[in-house]
């Protein structure tokens, strides 16, 4: 029998466990031809002594090599290099299978270019964030949520931990159906609701069901870029339709319909995103009629239904849809918390079935523990109570922001007090470079977005959007002072004048 | 001033709130021309008395109508029908905007046909489920999980409830990187890991990054249909490659590469799904080399790494990948619970960045409460302890199933004892109609799938797959007795002979 010495320097502090180091060294020796098919390996005790490791470590290495097919064991007679090892050219694999120190830095196949998502990163601590969209998380009923998780896991652990209905757990679908039926006029049942991970997945799943590459989808501009991204990624050709003080310009949409076959229109009729205007009654009717005539799907994103301050919320388009043209998208991101990713679609069942099928491809099903916990909060009325509480707070914050803007930036911004929503859309004096302002403001510790972000063509516009929901009234006052301090110099002197 | 009588029968028990009923009746009267622009409406007190409702109800109805643009209010002088109401042809909207009793049953736009997902529904209570894939959820450390949720919500509520990193929370990425580095040889860091919702979202996101419609992707057959669905939905043309006792047939893949440009290959090298065979060492090297030469992405689905019973788990292809061709997909569905939807991708950072971008389109980010809770369980070693405990149990269950099959169905099924995994892949005597058997078995209270489900062409094959992980040894014995009782008659007599 040949004598074989394992050429290896073991490194006890390396990231790679010792047994793996041994296994790789043996495999390397086989590849190099130092060990040949049929060669017998030293006994585990012998090799352990020689390497100064525990015998179990060597056994683990041999197990690994055996499992990988490098070694075979003839019971009672020892461990041998496998005969059936394909080994046409040992050097050929030497670099392929050698032990790695780090992940490869590059990929060995072609990749498409990185897509710009527009997602913003984290801000430095202490930044007053007015980028909007985020509710005040300091007020979320966290203790109740934690209790709900515990109850769910105690009582329904097996159900929530198992595979389940891709449409979402029935309790949550029922609670959501009740919510939209009782206060939003939809008459939905659990069969017409699909739970999604935030409105984003609702939009993505709807896009994947509806869109065949090349389909024309009309969108609002100014508008909501994450929705555009989902639609575009599904292959849609997006056509921007302008918005004015009454919301989406129906004349422009009608005009588009005369030129192109429009598959769908994405709208935010309640508080148009980002301008917060309400789609007027006349345009609502016109949109529903046009959609019915032309068989256009209306994707209605009602992302902040509850946050209407002056009068009742306007009922959604879906509440008046008898033709089955409206796909209603809702979310709990604003009335509870975005991190829970709780959204939903309410729509006729043929669409619900297709969304459920697409859902099985995306992620099989939702997070049932979270779905159940949120269902409990809805059943107990906790979400509704919370929404009422924060609605009052947000209304005061809206007014505080308006007051502060008038006081500090009267000559720089002008705006209509929005009847609802979580942000003010303000026109900025054209002398001010809004992009420079937003950039300088970050340095002063306040974050907001300028109009460019919401414009379909991505070009500068003399607007900024100021979210007020996540800040207290004192923080709002401070944020506006910082905004003033950050004004680009030319504009500052004019504002002081 | 005209006298106007509201024509409405209020229904206190209807699903639609009374204020909505009033608002709709008024809007209907405007549409019909019974109320005209400029008409004054009765005061809220008057109308409340007339209708026998609380004054606040009428005020809510007026608020709604005002918000929708039907009414205007001249301070101190009263409420009027809006002058700016577009009203070209009242009757035209009469049916469009009328109050709805139910959701429309049909959609008013074109829908693609419903896709068959292969998702199985719930089984009757008492069914012994051997369809595989589900671990034994009775053993999951539920109390620890509930505690972890509570701690996370107490200490990190604002972070987990807010918008965050689309790659997943850093704690979980770090814990997963450590897991795959310490026991799977990958040398990953948090920068090379993206958390996904189960392996399904990993596959879907990878497909959406990689695939341009028409790209050829090689898949195993027998194989895993949910992966095929995700790839196909992204536009891939799938080409099945046969598997044998050593796993994927590399000669067939090489042959395909001479004919077509292959973009990616989807493989389950550890325990091939569904046959549970281990991809041999030689084929592993050959696959890595071929991928490097041809710039093919290898999507390696290592869904049940820990459940290897005879010797150590085989290290993944990704552990030997220096060329950056392997996209490693892992999941906690098997070692923890599928309902948590915790999967991940480990790959070179250029791919990680693109997955993060696609993730923002899909659902923006994961469930951060669940991600944090699972990170705690990993940091505390709870997942690892749980995996060790269940691995021992599953090994005994595998052996119990083998024994029961030999005893009860010796003449009907034959199989190799698999070195790992959660199921036995058994060849069935060709006299037995496996589809009929599976169907009759459901009636006897045992569920399993026949070969057809795993075959690329969806045609019958003389195999059944029997999952053993979710059943105790007693339940396994009972399940096999039920299987025998359910044998189609012709085969039963032969087995008894």
List the helices and strands and how they pair.
Two copies of one chain form a homodimer.
Chain A lengths: L17 H15 L11 H8 L3 H13 L3 E4 L3 E4 L8 H5 L33 E2 L12 H20 L8 H15 L8 E4 L1 H13 L5 E6 L3 H9 L3 E8 L2 E2 L1 H10 L2 E6 L13 H14 L2 E5 L24 E6 L11 E4 L2 H14 L5 H12 L2 H28 L3 E2 L8 E6 L5 H11 L1 E2 L1 E2 L12 E5 L5 H13 L3 H8 L1
Parallel strand pairs in A: 3-14, 5-6, 5-8, 8-9, 9-10
Antiparallel strand pairs in A: 1-2, 4-11, 6-7, 10-11, 12-13, 13-16, 15-16
Helix pairs in contact in A: 1-3, 2-3, 5-12, 6-12, 7-8, 7-11, 13-15
Structure description:
The structure is a homodimer of 497-residue chains. In chain A, strands 4-11-10-9-8-5-6-7 form an 8-stranded mixed β-sheet, with helices on both faces. Chain A starts with 17 loop residues before the first helix and ends with a helix. The radius of gyration of chain A is 31 Å and the shape is elongated. Residues 86-100 of chain A have low confidence and may be disordered. In chain A, β1 (71-74) and β2 form a beta hairpin. In chain A, 42% of the residues lie in helices and 14% in strands. Chain A is an alpha/beta fold.
């Amino acid at each position: 029998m040949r004598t074989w010495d394992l050429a290896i320097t073991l490194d006890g502090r390396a990231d790679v466990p010792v047994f793996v180091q041994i296994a790789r060294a043996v495999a390397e020796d086989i590849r190099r031809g130092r060990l040949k098919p049929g060669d017998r390996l030293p006994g585990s005790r012998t090799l352990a002594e020689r390497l100064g490791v525990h015998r179990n470590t060597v056994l683990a290495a041999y197990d690994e090599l055996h499992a990988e097919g490098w070694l075979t064991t003839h019971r009672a007679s020892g461990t041998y290099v496998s005969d059936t090892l394909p080994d046409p050219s040992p050097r050929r694999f030497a670099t392929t299978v050698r032990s790695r120190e780090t992940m490869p830095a590059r990929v060995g196949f072609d990749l498409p270019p990185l897509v710009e998502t527009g997602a913003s990163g984290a801000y430095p601590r202490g930044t007053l964030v007015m980028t909007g969209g985020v509710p005040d998380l300091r007020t979320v009923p966290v203790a109740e949520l934690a209790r709900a998780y515990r109850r769910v896991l105690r009582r329904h652990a097996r159900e929530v931990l198992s595979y389940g209905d891709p449409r979402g757990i029935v309790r949550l679908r029922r609670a959501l159906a009740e919510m939209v039926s009782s206060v939003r006029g939809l008459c939905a049942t659990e069969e017409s609701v699909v739970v999604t991970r935030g409105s984003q997945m609702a939009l993505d799943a709807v896009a994947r069901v509806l869109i065949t590459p090349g389909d024309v989808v009309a969108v609002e501009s100014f508008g909501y870029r994450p929705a555009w991204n989902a639609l575009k990624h599904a292959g849609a050709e997006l056509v921007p339709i302008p918005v004015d003080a009454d919301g989406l310009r129906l004349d422009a949409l009608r005009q588009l319909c005369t030129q192109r076959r429009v598959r769908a229109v994405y709208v935010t009729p309640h508080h148009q995103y980002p301008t917060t205007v309400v789609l007027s009654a006349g345009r609502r009717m016109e949109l529903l009629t046009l959609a019915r005539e032309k068989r256009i799907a209306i994707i209605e994103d009602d992302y902040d239904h509850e946050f209407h301050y002056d009068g009742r919320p306007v009922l959604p388009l879906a509440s008046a849809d008898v033709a089955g043209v409206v796909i209603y998208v809702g979310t709990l991101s604003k009335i509870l918390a975005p991190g829970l990713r709780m959204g939903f679609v309410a729509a006729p069942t043929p669409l619900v079935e297709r969304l459920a099928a697409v859902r099985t491809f995306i992620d099989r099903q939702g997070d049932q523990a979270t779905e159940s916990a949120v269902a409990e909060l809805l059943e107990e009325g906790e979400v509704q109570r919370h929404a009422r509480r924060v609605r009052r707070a947000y209304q005061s914050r809206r007014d505080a922001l308006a007051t502060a803007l008038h006081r500090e930036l009267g000559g720089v911004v002008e705006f209509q007090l929005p009847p609802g929503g979580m942000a003010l859309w303000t026109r900025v004096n054209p002398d001010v470079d809004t992009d420079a302002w937003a950039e300088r403001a970050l340095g002063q510790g306040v974050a907001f977005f300028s109009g460019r972000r919401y414009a379909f063509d991505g070009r500068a516009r003399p607007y900024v959007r100021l979210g007020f929901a996540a800040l207290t009234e004192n923080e709002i006052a401070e944020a506006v002072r910082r905004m003033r301090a950050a004004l680009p110099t030319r504009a500052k002197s004019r504002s002081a004048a």
